[in-house]
Specification:
With 176 residues, the protein is α+β, with helices and mostly antiparallel strands. The chain has 4 helices and 8 strands, in the order αββββββββααα. It has a 5-stranded antiparallel β-barrel. Strand 3 and strand 4 form a beta hairpin. The chain is globular.
């Protein structure tokens, strides 16, 4: 139904004006905490651009877009461990999709999630084996962390991260 007063369809420029697009990269902020025998939330690996100390128990790690980090959360009570959780997160690039994670602002891409002591310890062994190869875990391929998460969910043995796999990741990054 065409009428002379009908408004034309929006163009992409009208939907996303340049002023609405982010002009600078969004940095991911990860809340960290330590209260002896109760709470320990820390980064196992990652390269924060800076750390903001809030008080003697709390800090905030600020990460650049695209950075990979591992946050471990341990919560205890009078009877022992109440929670073990490990998350491998990738800081979002501008206009990337992200998932909401408690204690992470504005959000992150979750590459791997491990809950419970057996799963967390299995992933920590993988992190140690990556370091034994001579590679920083935050430089490992995001696809490797996703594979580890899928193998954990399927209760399959975790894959090894080899120097050859890392070299292939570096070549793939150079081709982009």
């Amino acid at each position: 139904m065409n009428t002379p007063n009908a408004r034309p369809a929006f163009t992409s420029e009208q939907r996303w004006p340049r002023t609405a697009l982010p002009t600078r990269p969004i940095r991911m902020k990860v809340s960290l905490a330590f209260v002896e025998h109760r709470v320990n939330v820390y980064l196992r690996f990652g390269r924060p651009v800076r750390e903001i100390v809030l008080d003697r128990w709390r800090r905030i790690a600020v990460l650049a877009p695209g950075t990979i980090c591992c946050r471990i959360k341990w919560i205890g009570n009078d009877y022992g461990t109440a929670l073990w959780q490990l998350l491998v997160l990738q800081a979002p690039m501008p206009l990337d999709d992200m998932q909401r994670v408690a204690g992470v602002s504005p959000g992150a891409s979750i590459l791997l999630r491990a809950d419970g002591e057996p799963q967390v310890k299995a992933v920590l062994e993988s992190v140690d084996s990556i370091e034994a190869v001579g590679v920083e875990p935050c430089d490992a391929a995001p696809a490797y962390w996703r594979t580890v998460g899928n193998r954990l969910a399927a209760r399959q043995p975790l894959p090894m991260y080899t120097a050859e796999r890392h070299a292939a990741h570096l070549v793939r990054g150079a081709l982009r």
